[in-house]
Amino acid sequence: MIVDPAKIRINMDYGWLRAAEMHLGLAEDAVERHRDIISTRMTCLQLEGQWRQEPESAEVLAALREAKLKLRELVAGADASVLPSGAAHWWHQFERESEEPVSPPWLADD
Fold first, then answer.
1. Is there a contact between 94 and 104 (Cβ–Cβ < 8 Å)?
2. Between these two residues, 109 and 76, which has the higher pLDDT value?
3. What SS3 state is found at 57?
4. Which label site among 16, 82, 96, 100 has the fewest CB atoms less than 10 Å from its CB?
């Protein structure tokens, strides 16, 4: 069995959001936004892995950039008081830490 710390963090944040939804009785639009946030983070994780395998791929980088910008918009549109700590930073950080420091390529100016 392989334990993936990035997936654990995402799932912990999902649990946080589900608890907030149930405890606060949040509206369906907030619940759907939270699902989109978690789904987009999982997409980002997958694309980050592809980018690490193919760092020269403009197509992968474009998809990663698009997913990270979507994540930024989703988080910005959510109620900050129910989001887990650090949510505002998710879009400009890697989901999975690397052994060597790497600047997020989706933040680079073209």
1. yes
2. 76
3. coil
4. 100
Q: How far apart are CA 94 and CA 6, in angstroms?
A: 9
| Cβ 71 vs Cβ 92: under 8 Å | no
Q: Which two tokens stand for residue 84?
A: 């887990």
Of 13, 11, 5, 3, nearest to 89 (Cα)? Answer: 13
- 30 to each of 12, 36, 73, how far by Cα in Å? 18, 10, 14
Instruction: Pick the closest to residue 37 from 72, 2, 65 (CA basis).
Output: 72
CA-CA distance, 14 to 58, in Å (whole number)? 31
Per-residue model confidence as pLDDT tens digits over 11-42: 999 999 999 999 999 999 999 999 999 999 99
pLDDT for 110 beyond 60: no
Task: Give the tokens for residue 8.
Answer: 């654990």
Mean pLDDT of 39-58: 96
CA distance 89 to 96: 14
